[in-house]
Automatic annotation (TrEMBL):
<keyword id="KW-0328">Glycosyltransferase</keyword>
<dbReference type="InterPro" id="IPR036320">
    <property type="entry name" value="Glycosyl_Trfase_fam3_N_dom_sf"/>
</dbReference>
<dbReference type="GO" id="GO:0005829">
    <property type="term" value="C:cytosol"/>
</dbReference>
<dbReference type="Pfam" id="PF00591">
    <property type="entry name" value="Glycos_transf_3"/>
</dbReference>
<dbReference type="InterPro" id="IPR035902">
    <property type="entry name" value="Nuc_phospho_transferase"/>
</dbReference>
<feature type="domain" description="Glycosyl transferase family 3">
    <location>
        <begin position="146"/>
        <end position="294"/>
    </location>
</feature>
<protein>
    <submittedName>
        <fullName>Glycosyl transferase</fullName>
    </submittedName>
</protein>
<dbReference type="Pfam" id="PF02885">
    <property type="entry name" value="Glycos_trans_3N"/>
</dbReference>
<dbReference type="GO" id="GO:0004048">
    <property type="term" value="F:anthranilate phosphoribosyltransferase activity"/>
</dbReference>
<dbReference type="InterPro" id="IPR017459">
    <property type="entry name" value="Glycosyl_Trfase_fam3_N_dom"/>
</dbReference>
<dbReference type="GO" id="GO:0000162">
    <property type="term" value="P:L-tryptophan biosynthetic process"/>
</dbReference>
<feature type="domain" description="Glycosyl transferase family 3 N-terminal">
    <location>
        <begin position="5"/>
        <end position="59"/>
    </location>
</feature>
<keyword id="KW-0808">Transferase</keyword>
<dbReference type="InterPro" id="IPR005940">
    <property type="entry name" value="Anthranilate_Pribosyl_Tfrase"/>
</dbReference>
<dbReference type="InterPro" id="IPR000312">
    <property type="entry name" value="Glycosyl_Trfase_fam3"/>
</dbReference>
Length: 297
């Protein structure tokens, strides 16, 4: 089918918009990833699709198409962390402070990075990896190496300047064949969506309402566990553990962000232990955050 028919399916308004069939979705995604159509057509489809709202079935098909392109390298006993590709803008990365607490549990962390994607203009994991020496139990995967086709869409996505369905799908593509994963969700409806989209690929998937859309805890927040299809909601409050870190709500410079990670305050170090405790839950070391925190300490 001509690609403009796919644009018509997502971009002609409520009366004419429709869900793409499986074969159409596969063809559309392969055309986009291989850039077999004009960049203007790719941008038009991604924008129309976003406005029309992607269905979970379309996202599943997109994920399955992406899966065929990925070059994987297994990292044993690892947790994949679903960071967004638009970076962190208001607060530093706590990840480099967390990893050291997981070494005694023989746990590895898998993260993925690329050039900055829309829509936030934060410090990316690619920049973090280039500027801070990460512990040897953090395994950084550059998307230009393991999924070049999606990485090559960066220019088009930045010209468009808006979030697209790729922002949802790209967070947990599992280049390290990880058994466990933690993903972040801004809104509760995404908890079910993420479990449907990613859950089957992991022995255990934890969803957390993390800081700036990352799997990092900086303040009181909720997290969700999936036990054989039964999703339970839990609350975690740093103050309960005697942690009084005050997160920023305004943009900080990239250099300031890096310096805060390089020279962490005592409260940020304490917060790192709480994050490490959450990672123990993801790795099925325990189901209780209080016990997990005791294990870290």
């Amino acid at each position: 089918m001509a690609f403009h028919e796919y644009i018509r399916a997502v971009g002609t308004g409520p009366k004419s918009n429709r869900e793409l069939k499986k074969e159409e979705m596969i063809d559309a995604m392969e055309s986009i990833l291989n850039q077999n159509v004009h960049s203007e057509q790719i941008a038009a489809f991604l924008l129309g699709w976003r406005v029309r709202l992607e269905t979970i079935e379309e996202l599943k098909i997109t994920f399955n198409v992406c899966d065929k392109y990925i070059k994987r390298k297994t990292v044993e006993n690892s947790i994949e962390l679903g960071y967004p590709f638009d970076g962190k803008a208001d607060n530093p990365y706590i990840l480099p402070l967390v990893s050291k607490h997981l070494k005694k549990f023989d746990l590895n962390l898998v993260i993925s990075g690329d050039e900055l994607q829309p829509a936030k203009k934060g410090l990316t994991l690619k920049e973090l990896n280039a500027n801070i020496k990460l512990d040897n139990n953090i395994h950084y995967f550059d998307r230009a190496d393991y999924f070049k086709e999606l990485s090559d869409l960066t220019k088009i996505r930045n010209i468009l300047g808006l979030r697209t369905a790729f922002n949802t799908v790209e967070k947990l593509l599992n280049p390290g064949n990880s058994k466990y994963a933690i993903n972040a969700a801004f809104h509760k409806p995404y908890v079910v969506k993420y479990n449907e989209l990613f859950g089957k690929n992991y022995e255990h998937l934890v969803i957390i309402k993390g800081n700036e859309g990352t799997p990092e805890i900086f303040s009181k927040c909720k997290y969700w566990l999936n036990n054989d299809g039964d999703i339970s909601e839990h609350l975690i409050d740093p103050e309960y553990f005697g942690i009084n870190y005050k997160k920023s709500t305004t943009i900080i410079s990239k250099e300031e962000s890096l310096n805060m990670t390089r020279n962490p305050s005592d409260e940020l170090e304490k917060l790192a232990k709480l994050n490490a405790a959450m990672f123990l839950i993801a790795a099925k070391k325990t189901k209780d955050i209080k016990k997990a925190y005791e294990m870290i300490n």
